[in-house]
């Protein structure tokens, strides 16, 4: 090819490239003129909206949030966005603004809503944190709704199984649809097994090797059949004489569950006498034979207590934690139980006392409805307290605030505990739940929801 021909080919290529570039610029200008700046931002916003939905589904395991976007008629901009990928002009701002908000109150009870973005970013920084919600319901629809209403957990523990008889048989039913929903949303299922609060029944099973073996075999069978991720033993009101038998049972159960990779946790109540675990729960022995120990740090004053008082004040909770740590429970195995309920105490004119449990988050609304004083903050107990006259005497209430939960979570982090446990999702309300999850994630601790 001579020089003249080569020069002509190069000139034609340059001219064609310039024409193509001018055409591209013209098309871009036409689209910009047609859509305007807001249109282009809408395209990028559509991408941010898509990304925010992905983040929520992956990190929170549910898409049921306030402000969830609904299906709308597709605009020109959104149609373009479906086929054109443009860089975000301000991706952080767009993603933050598009994430739905919860009705969580700020720590100072301002009532302002807080974005889930901050919780999402902290979850990303703490991927191993456990957020376990206890499900007291035996209804599939109710269990699923409770999971949807309490975003942020990755483990649930439904109370489905019960020790039935002295032969070690179980009663109750596992709900496969709930397990399927949980697993679809990246949530593990640890089924709670209780002893119906019967010391006699529990003794009959633990003292009979055949009955104990039958119980263990049944739990292994249920775990395999329903693809359970864990078992939580909630045997309460045990006799002190069964201390060693119970510890032995937990060891045998753990050895049966470990090969099939099923987690085992055990709920225990605080010692009545500090540093004395000579009663039913041998702290160090149970910790050696279980994956987690859950301290049920509530019912400081129980439902039939003759003396009104808090369900769980901070000094009492702190003493309970220290007691378990001082009697052989490793910090990385101890989960602290927190209540999401409190009690209205009714002191009658004849001196008798009755009580009723209510959601902690509902107390202020109840007091306002009754035109009762909200009370004062007790810095020693880390609780609000109010007292007011009633028709047959007077009423007293000790109740927590966001500060209470934050201080309790600080207790967890300061001691390096494995996490916290909250009883229960049935008592949860949006503001209390989200404030707790937010504080939990900010502190970077593990969470669970323990049995009452």
What does this structure look like?
The chain is α/β, with parallel strands linked by helices and 452 residues long. It has two domains: 7-99, no CATH class; 118-339 and 402-448, TIM Barrel (Alpha-Beta Barrel), CATH 3.20.20. Helix content is 44%, strand content 19%. The protein is built from 14 helices and 18 strands. The strands form three sheets. Strands 3, 4, 5, 6, 7, 8, 9, 10, 11, 17 and 18 form an eleven-stranded mixed sheet that branches. A five-stranded antiparallel sheet has the order 13-12-16-15-14, with no helix packed on it. Strands 1-2 form a two-stranded antiparallel sheet. A hairpin with a 6-residue loop joins strand 5 (161-163) and strand 6 (170-171). This is Spore germination protein YaaH. One of its GO terms (biological process) is carbohydrate metabolic process. InterPro entries: Chitinase_II/V-like_cat (IPR011583), Chitinase_insertion_sf (IPR029070), GH (IPR017853), Glyco_hydro18_cat (IPR001223). One of its GO terms (molecular function) is chitin binding.
Protein topology:
Layout: H1 3-60, H2 76-83, H3 91-98, E1 101-102, E2 114-115, H4 117-125, E3 132-135, H5 140-149, E4 155-158, E5 161-163, E6 170-171, H6 176-184, E7 188-194, H7 199-206, H8 209-226, E8 230-234, H9 243-257, E9 263-268, H10 283-289, E10 292-295, H11 314-326, E11 334-339, E12 341-348, E13 353-359, H12 363-369, E14 376-378, E15 383-390, E16 393-399, H13 402-415, E17 419-423, H14 430-443, E18 447-448
Parallel strand pairs: 3-4, 4-7, 5-7, 7-8, 8-9, 9-10, 10-11, 11-17, 17-18
Antiparallel strand pairs: 1-2, 5-6, 12-13, 12-16, 14-15, 15-16
């Amino acid at each position: 090819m001579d020089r003249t021909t080569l020069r002509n080919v190069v000139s034609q290529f340059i001219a064609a490239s310039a024409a193509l570039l001018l055409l591209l610029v013209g098309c871009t200008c036409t689209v910009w003129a047609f859509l305007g700046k807001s249109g282009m931002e809408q395209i990028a916003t559509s991408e941010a909206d898509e990304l925010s939905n992905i983040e929520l589904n992956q990190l929170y395991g549910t898409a049921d949030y306030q402000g969830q976007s609904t299906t709308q008629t597709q605009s020109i901009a959104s149609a373009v966005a479906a086929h054109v990928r443009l860089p975000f002009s301000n991706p952080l701002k767009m993603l933050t603004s598009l994430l739905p908000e919860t009705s969580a109150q700020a720590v100072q009870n301002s009532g302002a809503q807080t974005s889930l973005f901050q919780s999402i970013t902290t979850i990303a920084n703490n991927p191993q944190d456990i957020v376990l919600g206890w499900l007291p319901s035996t209804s599939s629809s109710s269990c699923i709704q409770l999971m949807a209403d309490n975003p942020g957990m990755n483990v649930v523990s439904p109370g489905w199984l019960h020790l039935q008889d002295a032969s070690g048989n179980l009663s109750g039913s596992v709900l496969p649809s709930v397990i399927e929903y949980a697993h679809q949303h990246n949530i593990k299922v640890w089924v709670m097994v209780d002893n119906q609060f019967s010391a006699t029944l529990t003794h009959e099973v633990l003292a009979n090797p055949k009955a104990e073996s039958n119980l263990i075999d049944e739990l292994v069978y249920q775990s395999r059949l329903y693809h359970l991720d864990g078992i939580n033993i909630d045997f309460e009101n045990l006799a002190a004489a069964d201390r060693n038998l119970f510890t032995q049972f937990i060891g045998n159960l753990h050895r049966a569950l470990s090969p099939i990779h099923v987690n085992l946790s055990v709920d225990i109540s605080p010692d009545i006498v500090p540093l004395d675990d000579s009663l039913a729960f041998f702290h160090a022995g149970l910790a050696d034979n279980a994956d987690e120990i859950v301290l049920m740090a509530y019912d400081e004053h129980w439902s039939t207590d003759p003396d009104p008082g808090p369900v769980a004040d901070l000094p009492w909770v702190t003493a309970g934690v220290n007691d378990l740590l001082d009697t052989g429970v490793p910090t990385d195995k101890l989960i602290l139980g927190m209540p999401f309920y409190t009690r209205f105490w009714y002191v009658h004119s004849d001196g008798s006392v009755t009580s009723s449990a209510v959601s902690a988050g509902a107390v202020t609304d109840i007091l306002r409805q009754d035109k009762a004083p909200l009370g004062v903050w007790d810095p020693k107990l880390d609780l609000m307290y109010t007292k007011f006259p009633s028709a047959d005497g007077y009423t007293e209430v000790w109740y927590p605030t966001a500060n209470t939960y934050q201080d309790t979570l600080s207790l967890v982090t300061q001691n390096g505990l494995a996490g916290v446990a909250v009883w229960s999702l049935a008592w949860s309300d949006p503001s209390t739940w989200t404030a707790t999850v937010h504080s939990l994630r900010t502190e970077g601790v593990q969470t669970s929801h323990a049995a009452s």
